[in-house]
Specification:
With 297 residues, this protein is an alpha+beta fold. The protein has two domains: 181 residues, Jelly Rolls, CATH 2.60.120; 111 residues, Arc Repressor Mutant, subunit A. The protein starts with 14 loop residues before the first strand and ends with a helix.
C-alpha cells in the first residue's frame, strides 16, 4: 500500500516524509514517519475508506477542525489518534512535529472482522478519538515503525501479523456502534480522497475570490447536485458553510498576528466588505473582530 493511497495529505511544503513503507511491497497497510514544520494555513486530511492512526513521536501542539468544531490538542509523546474511515479533518500545527502514521487497508479490516467476529465491515462505525493513552497499542505501532528500518523481506511476515493485531485492538476498544451502511447510496459515502484534496486545495487557494459551486463541482469532476451531497457526507456541512468557516479561520489568524485594517482582512478573506465580514465573524465566533483581536494580542 502506497502513501499516496492513504488519507495523509503531504502536498504542503511544510510536511515531509522521513521514512515510508513505499516500495516495501506491504499490501495491507502503509507505515510512514512524517515530519512537519509549524503552519498556520489549515491542511485537510482524511476522507478515505481506510483506517488511519497516528502517534506523536515528540510532544505536539495543534488545532483540529472536524465538521464545524475546532479545538486545540496537545499530544504528549506516544499518544495516539484514531481517524475514522471517511472522516475529514483540518489541522494547524503549532510546533515542529514528527508523527508515525499507520493506515490499514479496508480489505484487511473486512478480512479480520469476517474471520474473527463473523461481522460485516459495512456495518462498522469507528469513532475518531484523539489523545489515546494505550501502552499496548503504542507498542504495536512502535514495532511497525521499527520495521521501516529492517530489510523489507525479513519484516513482511511480522508486519502482516502486527497489522492484524492492531486491527483487532481497535475493533475491541473503539467500535462506536453498528449501522446498516450497506443501504446507503454510493454518493452518501462522500468524496474520494483525491477529490477532497483537489476541492479543498482549490478553496484555500481562492478564498480571497468568489468561489462558485460550478467551479467546485468541476474540480471534483461531478454534477452540482451530486457534488453537494457528497461534500456534505464528507464534511457534515454544505460547501457554502465550509467556505465561510474557512474564511473565518483565516481571518482569525490575521487578526491575531497583525495590525492589518479590518477592511483589508475582509477583502483578503473573500468577504464582500467590512460589514459582511463583521456580521459573519460575530455570528460564527460570538464576538466582533475588534474584540477578538484585542483578546488574542
Amino acid at each position: 500500500m502506497l502513501l499516496s493511497e492513504t488519507s495523509i495529505n503531504i502536498s504542503n511544503p511544510n510536511i515531509s516524509v522521513y521514512k515510508s513503507s513505499d516500495g516495501f511491497g506491504w499490501p495491507n497497510l502503509n507505515v510512514s514517519i512524517i515530519d512537519s514544520k509549524p503552519y498556520e494555513a489549515e491542511i485537510t486530511h482524511g476522507g478515505g475508506s481506510n483506517l488511519w492512526m497516528s502517534m506523536a513521536m515528540a510532544p505536539l501542539d495543534m488545532s483540529i477542525t472536524t465538521g464545524r468544531k475546532e479545538f486545540p490538542l496537545s499530544l504528549p509523546t506516544d499518544q495516539i489518534c484514531i481517524h475514522a474511515p471517511r472522516a475529514v479533518l483540518g489541522t494547524i500545527r503549532k510546533n515542529d512535529a514528527r508523527l508515525l502514521h499507520v493506515s490499514l487497508r479496508r480489505e484487511l479490516i473486512s478480512e479480520v472482522l469476517g474471520e474473527l467476529y463473523d461481522y460485516d465491515a459495512d456495518n462498522l462505525e469507528i469513532e475518531s478519538k484523539f489523545g489515546i493513552d494505550d501502552p499496548g497499542m503504542t507498542e504495536t505501532i512502535r514495532m511497525l515503525g521499527r520495521s521501516l528500518f529492517e530489510p523489507a523481506g525479513n519484516s513482511a511476515l511480522k508486519v502482516e501479523y502486527l497489522s492484524r493485531a492492531l486491527a483487532v485492538d481497535v475493533f475491541t476498544k473503539h467500535i462506536a456502534s453498528s449501522r446498516p451502511e450497506s443501504a446507503l447510496e454510493p454518493h452518501k459515502r462522500g468524496l474520494t480522497v483525491p477529490q477532497i484534496r483537489r476541492v479543498i486545495n482549490y478553496i484555500h487557494e481562492n478564498l480571497s475570490a468568489e468561489i462558485m459551486l460550478n467551479d467546485l463541482a468541476n474540480v471534483a469532476g461531478m454534477s452540482r447536485t451530486l457534488f453537494i451531497q457528497c461534500f456534505k457526507a464528507s464534511f457534515s456541512e454544505t460547501p457554502y458553510q465550509y467556505i465561510i468557516h474557512a474564511r473565518i479561520r483565516r481571518s482569525q489568524s490575521m487578526l491575531a498576528g497583525s495590525r492589518t485594517p479590518l477592511v483589508e482582512i475582509a477583502l483578503l478573506c473573500g468577504f464582500a466588505d467590512q460589514a459582511h465580514f463583521c456580521r459573519s465573524f460575530q455570528k460564527s465566533t460570538g464576538m466582533t473582530p475588534t474584540r477578538y483581536r484585542r483578546e488574542t494580542q
